UniProtKB/TrEMBL annotation:
Stated name of the protein: Hydroxyacylglutathione hydrolase
GO MF, one annotated term: hydroxyacylglutathione hydrolase activity
Organism: Pseudooceanicola algae
Family the UniProt entry places it in: Belongs to the metallo-beta-lactamase superfamily. Class-B beta-lactamase family.
Coiled-coil ranges (or none): none
Gene3D superfamilies reported for this sequence: Ribonuclease Z/Hydroxyacylglutathione hydrolase-like
Length: 267
């Protein structure tokens, strides 16, 4: 496909207020497989953006426009270093990631928006998982007139701090605990707020086909993560993709994959 055939998006990012101080940011013109959820959480002393999308268009100005006080310090927390979760990380001055993913965040591989450049086994895994077929490009619109998809340049950034299981993110008036949730990615993290039952689960669990086949995935580790999540008294789960869901659905998704892996003799 010729990029000049694509329409120009009116807005690249879309913001959806979820509750006071919590806003979902999405990239609807990115193919569903690579269109990740970002969450802006506004605290009393500091704001937090969980993940930074594909990096097709500048994210920081959009996020600052959403913030009640754009002069407040802002931290970007990268849940894991897959292409759809840290594309704009370099735009933020404060950058957190699990220590295992720090090298991947600093030195990402050369990514392309050309779907033809994806490894064949990855494309096959997407199809097996049940995702819609890929588009020729990973976007169906341009962020601005004259945008050249070949100019897509995935930068990455060094972490300004690293996280491990049990660390606490404190924004002032809002705290959450870091959960290490390996399986989808070795150093993937989620955030757990015990007093409200709120879970930011990244790609450990979301309400769509989970990915578990291919390089970097670890089914036994993933199973341990799902068993752990299954026991968590979460009331609302905000995943790395797809809409939020409650505890019953979380247990249903965990059981679906644990049963599948057991039936296949993988766990
Ligand atoms: Zn993802």
């Amino acid at each position: 496909m010729n990029a000049s055939d694509l329409p120009v998006a009116a807005e690249w990012y879309v913001a959806t207020p979820l509750s006071p101080g919590l806003t979902l940011v999405t990239e609807p013109h990115v193919h569903p497989i690579f269109s990740a959820n970002m969450y802006l959480i506004e605290g009393e002393r500091r704001d937090l953006i969980i993940d930074s999308g594909m990096g097709v268009a500048p994210l920081r100005p959009f996020v600052d426009g959403l913030r009640e006080d754009p002069t407040k310090p802002l931290t970007c927390l990268t849940t894991h270093t897959h292409v759809d979760h840290f594309g704009a990380v370099q735009e933020f001055d404060s950058r957190l990631v699990h220590e295992i993913e720090a090298e991947g965040m600093a030195n990402p591989p050369a990514y392309s928006l050309d779907a033809g450049a994806l490894p064949a086994d990855l494309v096959a895994a997407f199809e097996t998982a049940g995702y819609p077929p890929l588009w020729p490009l990973l976007i169906d619109a341009l962020p601005h007139a004259g945008y050249d998809p070949e100019s897509y340049d995935f930068k990455g950034a060094t972490a300004t701090g690293t996280l491990i299981e049990g660390d606490v993110i404190d924004l002032g008036g809002w705290q959450a605990e870091v959960l290490h949730l390996p399986g989808h990615c070795p150093g993937q993290i989620g955030l757990w707020q015990a007093e409200t039952g709120l879970l930011f689960s990244a790609d450990a669990i979301y309400d769509g086909p989970l990915l578990w086949q291919g390089a970097g995935y670890d089914v036994p580790a993933y199973a341990a993560t799902l068993r752990r999540l299954r026991d968590l008294p979460a009331s609302l789960v905000h995943g790395g993709h797809d809409p939020a869901f409650g505890r019953a659905r979380m247990i249903g998704i965990c059981d679906e994959y644990l049963d599948l892996w057991q039936a296949q003799g993988l766990i």
